């Protein structure tokens, strides 16, 4: 089985209305030029199926990454020490790090305090490397489970996200809220509460398009409705495609109409940071290695999203 992101993080150390969103968009999320990036999780899944460990030898891993032509990387961090370790390797291979992914537990008071402290410590280190966006997906009750958080837990989580985002903003970093499929359960109450009860000044949205699709029982309609509702808060995209519900080996045409999606972004005058997260799972095709797949991904993302690239 493909490990979930929390397992991956443990394994690899290395409320406002649309009118308000529209009025604040220019001052909060002014686009800045960033190269197309790729997340570490895709590399972990590709390496894993070839019985290799992504992150075990950082120099060799980033050398593979550089072979693809990608100039930016979105790693996942648990602690500031991991940033210090990665920094020199990124510099050696001339790879930028405009965004990072961090884990957080924000629905329990004591754990939220610890998480916020850890994320801010990581922020102090990633800022030195030019990072502008920190993505977090608040941990669910249980990865892979059906349990949902209580109303009180959701209120605390939203308040914690807002607090964290305000603190990061003081450091010149944007907090971007990310989801998997569990946030779409129970009428997507967790998903909507986070975006409707945080300030757009303090928290933006990392739209992982396929997790919204899968979490909505494979609904492309839901994807475009979410874009319509929260597009003005989108500062980053995680880009993944599937064919007949299964993650494809490379990005391209499939279940989600990304050409239409890119067109809608252009209409909204949005230029989010583009992060390839074309992972593989158990039933994905197996015809190429991670390097070859990411060469294809990069070319296809440039073609599909060319109209919004700065």
In short:
The protein has helices at residues 5-11, 18-28, 40-49, 58-67, 80-92, 109-127, 151-170, 185-196, 209-215, 220-230, 258-267, 290-304, and strands spanning 37-39, 72-74, 76-77, 99-104, 133-138, 174-177, 204-208, 234-239, 242-243, 246-247, 273-276.
Describe this structure in words.
This protein is an alpha/beta fold. The protein contains 12 helices and 11 strands. It has helices at 5-11, 18-28, 40-49, 58-67, 80-92, 109-127, 151-170, 185-196, 209-215, 220-230, 258-267, 290-304, and strands spanning 37-39, 72-74, 76-77, 99-104, 133-138, 174-177, 204-208, 234-239, 242-243, 246-247, 273-276. The chain has a 9-stranded parallel sheet. The chain has a two-stranded antiparallel ribbon with strand order 9-10. Strand 6 (174-177), helix 8 (185-196) and strand 7 form a beta-alpha-beta unit. Helix 7 packs parallel to helix 8. The longest helix has 20 residues, at 151-170. The radius of gyration is 18 Å and the shape is globular. The model is unreliable at 10-30 (pLDDT under 50).
Considering the chains and any ligands shown, give keywords for the structure:
alpha/beta; globular; 47% helix; 310 residues; two-stranded antiparallel ribbon
Structure summary, number of beta strands: 11
Main β sheet profile: 9 strands, parallel
Distance between the termini: 38 Å
Helix coverage percent: 40-55%
H and E order:
HHEHHEEHEHEHEHEHHEEEHEH
Category from helices, strands and their pairing: alpha/beta
Strand order of the largest sheet: 2-1-11-8-7-6-5-4-3
Overall pLDDT score = 91
Q: Rg from C-alpha positions?
A: 18 Å
């Amino acid at each position: 089985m493909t490990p979930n992101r929390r397992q991956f993080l443990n394994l690899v150390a290395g409320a406002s209305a649309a009118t308000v969103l529209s009025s604040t968009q220019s001052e909060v999320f002014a686009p800045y030029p960033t190269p197309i990036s790729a997340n570490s999780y895709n590399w972990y899944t590709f390496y894993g199926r070839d019985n290799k460990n992504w992150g075990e030898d950082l120099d060799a891993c980033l050398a593979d990454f550089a072979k693809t032509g990608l100039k930016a990387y979105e790693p996942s961090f648990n602690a500031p020490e991991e940033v210090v370790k990665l920094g020199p390797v990124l510099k050696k291979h001339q790879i930028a790090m405009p965004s990072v992914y961090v884990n957080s537990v924000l629905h329990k008071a004591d754990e939220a305090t610890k998480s916020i402290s850890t994320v801010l410590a990581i922020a102090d280190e990633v800022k030195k490397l030019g990072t502008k966006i920190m993505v977090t997906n608040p941990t669910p009750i249980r990865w892979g489970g059906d349990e949902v958080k209580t109303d009180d837990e959701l209120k605390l989580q939203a308040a914690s996200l807002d607090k964290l985002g305000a603190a990061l903003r003081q450091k010149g970093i944007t907090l971007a809220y990310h989801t998997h499929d569990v946030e779409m359960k129970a009428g997507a109450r967790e998903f909507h509460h986070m975006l409707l009860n945080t300030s757009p000044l303090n928290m933006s949205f990392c739209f992982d398009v396929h997790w919204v699709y899968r979490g909505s029982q494979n609904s492309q309609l839901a994807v475009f409705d979410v874009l319509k509702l929260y597009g003005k808060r989108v500062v980053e995209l995680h880009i993944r495609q599937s064919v007949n519900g299964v993650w494809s080996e490379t990005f391209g045409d499939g279940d989600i109409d990304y050409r239409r999606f890119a067109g809608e972004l252009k209409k909204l005058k949005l230029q989010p940071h583009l992060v390839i997260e074309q992972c593989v799972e158990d039933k994905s095709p197996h015809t190429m290695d991670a390097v070859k797949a990411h060469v294809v991904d990069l070319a296809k993302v440039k073609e599909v999203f060319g109209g919004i690239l700065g």
